[in-house]
Amino acid sequence: MAVRITGLGIVSAIGLTVAENLYALQNSKSGIEPVQFLETGKDYLVGEVKCSNEELVDRLGVRSKPVSRTSLLGLAAAREAWGNNRHASEIRTGIISATSVGGMDKTEKFYRYYLDRNHPDFNVLKCHDSGNTTERIAAELGISGYINTLSTACSSGANAIMLGARLIEQGKLDRVLVGGTDALTNFTLNGFRSLMIYDDQWCRPFDESRSGLNLGEGAAFLLLESDKSARLTGNTTICSLKGWANAADAYHQTASSPDGKGATMAIQNAIDKSGFNALDISYVNAHGTGTKNNDLSESVAMLNIFGDNIPEFSSTKPFTGHTLAAAGAIEAVYSVLAIQNGLIYPNLNYQNPIAETGLVPSTELRKGQPVLAVLSNSFGFGGNNSSLVFAVNK
Amino acid sequence: MYISAASTVSHQPTFQNDGFSKVIEPLGESSELISPNYKEYIDAGLLRRMSKILRMSVTAAKDCLQQADVEQPDAIVVGTGLGCLHDTEKFLNNFLTIEGLLPPTSFIQSTHNTIAGQISLSIGNHGYNMTHTQNTLSFEHALIDGALLLGEGNSHILTGAADEYIEFLDEAAAQLHPRPKLNLTSGASFFVLSGEKSEKSVARIQDVQVAGLVQDADAAIGTFLSDNFLNVSEVDLILYADFNAGTSKESVAYEYFNAHYHADSKLINYTKLSGLYPTNSAFAAHYAADRIKHHPELKNVLILNGLNKDNLGLTLIQSLEA
Amino acid sequence: MDTLKEDLKKHIIEQLNLEDIQVADIADDALLFSTEGIGLDSIDALELIVLLEKFYGIQVTNPEEGKEAFLTINTMADYIEKKRK
């Protein structure tokens, strides 16, 4: 039983479509720049989607309001992934999105007016809750029935993909649009700054001098289909989702364990589920946020799994910034593109290995590689660790 | 799947009160959360930072595991409609008003998955850990995930749902739903779901279905019953929550069941018992299990969650004999 | 110096919600981040950095620097005295 991937959609700091993202990845063009669209009053480095809310509303033709930027970004990506697919009663179709803050981009503006007693518009609160973010996307695409939202911080997007695969595997759905979306907000910017893990320079994943992350925003969706659905739709299978796992680190509220326990479990269980062994993995798209803690813990986990045979690996967060709940979905799309185009992406901004582990990521774009199986890691707050394995469809 | 244990912290005397369904009355307008002694369940080091929703959830989760005699569940699955509102509002206030450094704790604890994360941390659980947030259907989605996990060969899943009241909600509700005045409350209900029947089993969750952006609620109810080979007359008790309840319009549940079968006496509006919060269908599930345990003649209990007019949740809970 | 330590303990109890702990329960030389002491963690360390800025106007830009300063009430008080000069 294969879980087929037949559609991709993405918006991020490096492009508004799959093609634009692929172009930027192949040309080492980062989308991280001083903040431009979000009103912050500061000069933070962020990976914004280069499009205002008004432009997004226009492009997407969204009529009903209020609508959060999180929904708009999600809708743009979901539409691209959905493409020209049609609804059919014999194909049970659902949607699972992931978001960490839902409509917070609207709520935080509301709340400022509320605190100032300056005629706050309570109506915008209707798009605050995370579930609403997904319902808006579903409504635009005409999907009803199974509509769900996951929120597990930075691993959310990967978890949405995993849940979709499990629903197909157990025959509960035939086709499911899975992904994640998060808009940049002052809430999250201030949050990560309060944790003192926000880098005011470009983030440097897996580098000894790394000192934090840059936030980004964006959305990505993948269309998953069962064999039956793919037969009925006639869609071409780009590649398959073979393995998935989620495990709890249960170590600390924010920090990852030094022995990488949760991460190691997630990676091992995902590889086991895929039926491969560790040596079969051609490339690892790492979580690699650029924080001291994550990158060390993830490196230890990779050593636990791969030992002396560390595959090519890189973090693509220096391109997009850390897009929180969208990250797992954005990086899943990049993983699929790596397989489809035989690419291994560079880990930008890297210079020196982390002293404790000595791991060296890929730093140059590699083309024409036989990329047969890709492991994508997403690790979050509260010790929520998820890994996915994508592979060529055989 | 079987309910091996259930635990609820709410505005009703539900906690550690077997048989509560026989004695509770509809809530008045000014009820308060009945808090257990949290210190008996939560380590002081963790407790000091916890907001209400975390205290309720970790306590109900631990109580439920103790009742089921399950030390480590294979997974922890939580549903929450609005998540950790207290800490979300606190951090909003902080960054909009404080100049200078911000205390990080409320940000850390504002994420929806803090609930499931704190449960895993409290019991040292390394299993699958998931948080569903689909407003009024968050609990039903958690149950569906629980069923998937049991289908994948796991034995015991800790599944539950929680939402917390903050004062701001009254103001928002008054602005968005001027009439009727909503009785907003907090609640956390947790269950140990098991794949096999045992001496701990209380009831069976036979089926859970969700209909998001539902077009035809009547048809969805009809399909659900026929999927489970039930006639309307065979449903012994209907626990419902309804968008229209309290207004002049009749409820979906009432209309449906009155049209098909004179079922007036079998209908209970559970929002009157639990108060209103997005995941109060979890309260209804515990109520159903408790009723079944003490009234073995109840074979089929249907939870009809129409709290949001666009979303319909259907859960069929059966006695072990059914 | 003693009033500084007393004040510091009060602020710590308040900022970190140490509900069951009184000023008298914290010895000047107890290791704050050890379970033998009051068992603080890395989140508390960040809260202590906020506390130093809020009540003493001291900015700790490097969290690593905080680690040594926050060993005990004594080291914290020394750190504050030194920075104030």
Describe this structure in words.
- The complex is a heterotrimer of chains A (394), B (322) and C (85).
- Chain A has twelve helices and twelve strands.
- The relative contact order of chain A is 0.19.
- Chain A is 34% helix and 18% strand.
- Chain A has 394 residues and is α/β, with parallel strands linked by helices.
- In chain A, helix 2 runs parallel beside helix 3 and helix 6 packs across helix 12.
- In chain A, a hairpin with a 3-residue loop joins strand 11 and strand 12 (384-391).
- Chain B is of the alpha/beta class and 322 residues long.
- Chain B is built from twelve helices and ten strands.
- Chain B has helices at 20-23, 44-47, 52-68, 85-97, 105-108, 114-123, 138-151, 167-176, 217-227, 252-260, 271-274, 281-294; strands at residues 2-9, 75-79, 128-132, 156-163, 187-194, 203-211, 237-242, 267-269, 300-308, 311-318.
- Chain B has a ten-stranded mixed beta sheet with strand order 3-2-4-5-1-6-10-9-7-8, sandwiched between helices.
- The longest helix of chain B has 17 residues, at 52-68.
- Chain B is globular and about 65 Å long.
- Chain B starts with a strand and ends with a strand.
- By secondary structure, chain C is an all-alpha fold.
- Chain C has one domain: Orthogonal Bundle (Non-ribosomal Peptide Synthetase Peptidyl Carrier Protein, Chain A), CATH 1.10.1200.
- Chain C is globular.
- The A-C interface holds A 194-196, 252-255 and C 41-43, 46, 49-50, 63.
Features:
heterotrimer, A: 394 residues, alpha/beta, Peroxisomal Thiolase, Chain A, domain 1, 2 domains, ten-stranded mixed beta sheet, two-stranded antiparallel sheet, 12 helices, B: 322 residues, globular
In short:
Chain A has 394 residues and is α/β, with parallel strands linked by helices.
CATH class of the largest domain in chain A: Alpha Beta
Instruction: Round the mean pLDDT of chain A to the nearest integer and report it.
Output: 96
Give a count of the beta strands of chain B, DSSP E runs of length 2 or more. Answer: 10
Strand content of chain A: 15-25%
Straight-line distance between termini of chain A: 12 Å
Name the shape of chain B in a single word.
globular
Unreliable stretches covering 5 or more consecutive residues of chain B: none
How many domains is the backbone of chain B divided into? 2
Q: Biggest sheet of chain A: strands side by side, in what order?
A: 5-4-6-7-1-8-12-11-9-10
Q: Which stretches of chain A are low in confidence, meaning pLDDT under 50 for 5 or more residues running?
A: none
Number of domains of chain A: 2
Multimerization state: heterotrimer
Number of helices of chain B: 12
